[in-house]
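#struct-help
A.M.: can someone run this one for me? Single chain, 246 residues.
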Amino acid sequence: MTAASSLPYVAGMATMPSRADTAPRAIASILAQVERLWLFLDRFDVTPAYAEHERIHVLRTTEVGDIRANGKLAGLARETTHCTFFSVDDDVEYPADYCDTLESQLANYGGRAAVGVHAAILSSPVTSYVRDMTVMHRRASLDDATEVDLLGTDSAAFRTSTLHVDVREWEHVNLVDLSFALAARRASVPLVAIPRTKGWVNPLAERQDDSIWLGVRRDDTKQTALAQELVALPRPRLTPLLPAAS
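D.P.: on it. Structure tokens below:
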């Protein structure tokens, strides 16, 4: 559950009662790879059976507030030592080499970047978040590592020694990807979509009735304003480490 960096692997996920069909599979796929999973239970009356595990640390609304999807990153404030943190979702199944692969990609940049699978590049200027975004879908293949403006927090990783995120300080809820991208850019941390084969990460469900993305497609006013703020900031310089001599 650690790689060459020797840092512990820690994951964070938010889930809600309507995801009971997918959450157990998503949790099982990532829990096998990490030392602990911070699981935010959004609007649960009782703790579901699939959340009862010695390596699952449950967070509730009564403890951290009504922070909705932001809760996937709420565990960061509870970490007292540095780790490699994996932000994951309750409707995605992760391959067995997921954490090691993302950590190896982080190592390519000396840990001085955040990496992920689902990603997007924004046009400049941004007039519409939905229309002015080129998406690299998590299901799609990607031949080369690509610097991006946004990483989907369903499939992102970073070292906490490089990027510190405290969702209690965020102005918005359910704008996780944009808020994360702004935090990274303000800290001069580049975002990188990693190379992978098609279908390496497996969505268990998409476009559910309670999907945040469906709401964005109906009205992207808030997202557009944050995207405009993001592209107005200078993009951090991405510096890969030189390959080791053979």
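A.M.: thanks! The mean pLDDT is 93.
D.P.: also worth noting: The longest strand covers residues 9-15.
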